[in-house]
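Aim 2, interim progress: modelling of the flavin-adenine dinucleotide-bound target.
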Amino acid sequence: MDNSDGARSALIVGAGIAGLTTACALARRGWLVEVIETGAEGAAAGWGLSLTGPSLRALDGLGLADQCLATGYGMSVITNVDANGVANPIELPRLIGQDRPAMAGIARPELHRILRTEALRLGARIHYGLSVSHLDHGDGQARAELTDATVRTVDLLVGADGIRSVVRDLIGRPTPIRYHGQMVWRALVPRPDWATSIHTFVGTGHQTGVVPISPSQAYVFLTENEVRPDVLPDADLAPRMGDLLAPFSGRVAEIRPQVARSDSVIRRPVQTAFVDTSWSDGTSIVIGDAAHAPSPQMASGAALAIEDGLVLAQELDRCQDTRKALEAFMDRRRERCAVLVKTSVAIAGLEQEQRHRDSYPLIEACHQRMALPA
Ligand SMILES: Cc1cc2nc3c(=O)[nH]c(=O)nc-3n(C[C@H](O)[C@H](O)[C@H](O)COP(=O)(O)OP(=O)(O)OC[C@H]3O[C@@H](n4cnc5c(N)ncnc54)[C@H](O)[C@@H]3O)c2cc1C
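Predicted structure of the complex, ligand included:
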């Protein structure tokens, strides 16, 4: 990277939500930014994502909330339908102003496209099919050997490489990944007319729900309890998810045939990870799921990832000493992220004990905590 004009340089490992957000936030502040991504361009899985209020607020800090709202589906109510079919709508707090929705559903590839386009527009360079094989540091810089045998020496290396982070291991923070006994399902379906906001449905054994992600599309989610984390053949996914929805009546029964023939169904284990020690070695740092991966129950892992990118850039702006800035970043982020991971684990346990009502106060308290500034 040519930093002859004195600009600071960053190498970001992982072009996911945390990595691309960090690329935007740093490039906007004049950093020379290079991103390396092991996958292919545009390979983000095609399922939907809920952008909660804190996600939208952080995206607004990057000037991208309105694009996400225009591409996705804005909403301000969650309707919880209990086992007797009684609907309980809850108005969500609007963190980016009363004139804009409280949250949005969006297709994951669309969010990636918006972030990638902005990062490139701001001058970041993104390389696909590339990773890091070795890392060391000295003289206040990180030195990374990449898998194409090239070397980068930068002021900051950011490991935004997800729950199975290689950077985490390379900086000496091996961290267990815990499985919590649940598998989560997502299926893309045409948006039913009544799905103008998130709907959740409690059934006998499993939970399901519908999230609109555009005027024409929605995703159906389902959490399967007490199951081994085995891998099913792709061809079995849609019919199997259809079977799991069979005990539900009403609106779920109405959308079940579309799920059973959806050609976009994914099934993922509910896993978490949290780096208990420092997330940094002084010049490299792990962020996003690489540092703190919650289970999907609170639909807030992306919120933490986006906030991380923004807060990291703010702290590096405030302090030229990278080590001190990274410490300030961790001070701001650690407790908030720990609360979210712990709450998501607790909810996964309560769901499997069929104690849904006991989880509601935890969810409420965690949302209130997340509504506080990042
Ligand atoms: C089924 C499911 C549903 C979810 N739903 C929601 C939701 O509705 N709302 C929400 O807020 N959160 C949700 N989450 C959580 C959210 O997806 C994550 O918290 C978020 O994606 C974390 O972003 P990240 O950038 O840290 O990691 P990732 O999104 O995992 O991105 C990591 C990137 O790094 C790349 N990479 C990995 N290893 C390397 C390497 N060695 N070198 C280079 N690149 C590498 C990967 O290919 C990937 O592109 C959900 C999670 C799951 C599993």
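The domain at 9-73+102-177+271-371 is CATH 3.50.50.60 (FAD/NAD(P)-binding domain). The mean pLDDT is 94.
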